[in-house]
């Protein structure tokens, strides 16, 4: 959703990189570009004015003028302010001291309340709760039936005593559901209320009456993240009429500009608590303002990746692989298959790759990423015999032809997979020896993910040129005088122990260099589920 905004902000910050000091003109030019980017993203004008005003004030203060790298400091300020307008702290659900906890959903018709009720129930079940869905939307045609279908998909009980379609009293249904939940030991009750195509007095009165009847612990306002500045007016109307406690963004995976997410929390003063990011029941996550700000600024979202890995990777299998690597045994195709299965459980590969820092420069490759390629790779590996998976060296031409036929693919595809697997083996061996990890800067290229095409740094970069005559070059130097001078300066800096920002980093990241060693034990806590030897 934030692709356009992210691209604009990243391009703006690149102009600041490398400047020893920032003049007032530099700051004003940066603020002007940020303002344009936010307005293009359909962020509410009052929010844009307040946001850019705070950034300008801080950017012209001693906080930036005294910094060693003013450009990086401005990026940090923008990041801090983005976190602020997105709500600041992560807001979690307030559970009742005496169950059941009552959660009421409110919002316009078409915002996605009913589907989101199922997703919330599914998420609560994964957290160890026993939710019950309540069909209190008795106006919209087939709303009750839809909630029953959604509840079945989520694995949650649905309380629906009335058929709906204009029949029944929603206030009585909501009131009775509390006693039913107590008798059947459900610790969370999610009340799905009716919406309208627009704000009207009848809608607000019904929502207010249900709130008074059930006295909910949380009132979540569900808003379509794709409606832009209209989200602000709708949110203000519901705040006055129902007084909600938190916001849930639906359809955050859409291709709109994302103005709602950056406007609603600032205008209403109520935190964004959850976000719906797809059509599956699993495409639902707690909203973290700091992580969303990092995504917008193309800094990635490593923490979410770690949490997903911890949930979906089998701890026993990870421990088994760790011991195998530590013992010096080779990573084989059975291990490769296990890792692929874990990745599939984590969800969309596009989404996961998009959470990596600096991926905006590979937007075209990500757009062309083929999710089905992962299944094709799995089919190839499963077409091998147990002996071939354990000892891939025996895969000669005839065996590869048989495997290709069994997987319904070509020998070329099998050969490409084996090349990627060989790279993965080398990476594991390097980690065992404590050497640099392939794929880190200067480390020789990450094993290419299936379906990635020619993404730089993913094993699909530039191919080596065939040996031949060197035109006008000596000792492998560039033929461009300016580039030769740059290479000479880089070599001199390296000898002097100086470091430079890696090319392509908009935020001054640190290049590990070829002399640095990768040690999984030095990674942040949570990487144990991804790299053997990392902290759990």
UniProtKB/TrEMBL annotation:
Q: Where is the composition biased (Basic residues)?
A: 461-474
Task: For this UniProt record, give its keywords in alphabetical order, as a comma-separated list.
Answer: Cytoplasm, GTP-binding, Hydrolase, Nucleotide-binding, Ribonucleoprotein, RNA-binding, Signal recognition particle
Q: Which domain of life is it from?
A: Bacteria
* A GO biological-process term: SRP-dependent cotranslational protein targeting to membrane
One GO location term (cellular component):
signal recognition particle
What sort of enzyme, by top EC class, is this?
hydrolase
Region: Disordered; residue ranges are 432-536
The record's section on SUPFAM superfamilies has: P-loop containing nucleoside triphosphate hydrolases, Signal peptide-binding domain
Per the record, the domain comment is:
Composed of three domains: the N-terminal N domain, which is responsible for interactions with the ribosome, the central G domain, which binds GTP, and the C-terminal M domain, which binds the RNA and the signal sequence of the RNC.
Its assembly, as annotated, is: Part of the signal recognition particle protein translocation system, which is composed of SRP and FtsY.
Q: What is this protein called?
A: Signal recognition particle protein
């Amino acid at each position: 959703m934030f692709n356009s905004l992210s691209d604009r902000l990243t391009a703006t910050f690149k102009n600041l990189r490398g400047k020893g000091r920032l003049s007032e003109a530099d700051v004003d030019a940066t603020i002007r570009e940020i303002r344009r980017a936010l307005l293009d993203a359909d962020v509410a004008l009052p929010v844009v004015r307040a946001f850019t005003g705070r950034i300008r004030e801080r950017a012209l203060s001693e906080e930036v003028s005294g910094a060693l790298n003013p450009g990086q400091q401005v990026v940090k300020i923008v990041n801090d302010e983005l976190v602020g307008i997105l709500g600041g702290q992560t807001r979690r659900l307030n559970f009742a001291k005496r169950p059941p906890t009552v959660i009421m959903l409110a919002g316009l018709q078409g915002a996605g309340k009913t589907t989101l009720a199922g997703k919330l129930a599914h998420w609560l079940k994964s957290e160890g709760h026993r939710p019950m869905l309540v069909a209190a939307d008795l106006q919209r045609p087939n709303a009750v039936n839809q909630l029953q279908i959604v509840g079945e998909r989520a694995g949650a009980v649905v309380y629906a005593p009335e058929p709906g379609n204009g029949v029944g009293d929603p206030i009585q249904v909501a009131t009775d559901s509390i006693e039913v939940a107590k008798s059947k030991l459900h610790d969370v009750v999610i009340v799905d209320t009716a919406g309208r195509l627009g704000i009207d007095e009848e809608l607000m009165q019904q929502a207010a009456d249900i709130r008074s009847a059930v006295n909910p612990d949380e009132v979540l306002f569900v808003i379509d993240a794709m409606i832009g500045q209209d989200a602000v007016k709708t949110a203000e109307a519901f705040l006055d009429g129902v007084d909600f406690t938190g916001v849930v963004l639906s359809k955050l995976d859409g291709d709109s500009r994302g103005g709602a997410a950056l406007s609603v929390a600032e205008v209403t003063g109520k935190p964004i608590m959850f976000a719906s990011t797809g059509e599956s029941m699993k495409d639902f996550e707690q909203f973290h303002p700091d992580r969303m700000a990092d995504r917008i600024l193309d800094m990635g979202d490593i923490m979410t990746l770690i949490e997903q890995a911890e949930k979906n990777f089998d701890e026993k299998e990870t421990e088994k692989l760790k011991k195998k690597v530590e013992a010096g045994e080779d990573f084989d195709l059975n291990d490769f298959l296990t890792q692929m299965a874990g990745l599939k459980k984590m969800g969309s590969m596009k989404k996961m790759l998009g959470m990596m820092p600096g991926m905006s420069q590979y937007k075209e490759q990500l757009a062309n990423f083929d999710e089905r390629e992962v299944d094709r790779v799995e089919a190839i590996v499963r077409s091998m015999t147990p002996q071939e998976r354990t000892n891939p060296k025996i895969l000669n031409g005839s065996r590869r032809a048989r495997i290709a036929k069994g997987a319904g693919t070509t020998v070329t595809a099998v050969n490409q997979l084996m090349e990627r697997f060989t790279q993965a083996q080398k990476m594991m061996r390097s980690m065992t020896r404590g050497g640099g990890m392939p794929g880190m800067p200067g480390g020789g290229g990450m094993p290419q993910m299936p379906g990635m095409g020619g993404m730089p740094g993913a094993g699909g970069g530039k191919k080596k040129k065939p040996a031949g005559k060197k035109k006008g070059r000596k000792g492998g130097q560039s033929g461009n005088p300016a580039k030769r001078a740059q290479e000479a300066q880089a070599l001199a800096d390296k000898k002097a122990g100086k470091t430079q920002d890696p090319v392509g980093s908009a935020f001054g990241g640190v290049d590990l260099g070829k002399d640095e060693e990768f040690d999984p034990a030095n990674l942040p806590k949570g990487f144990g589920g991804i790299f053997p030897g990392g902290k759990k």
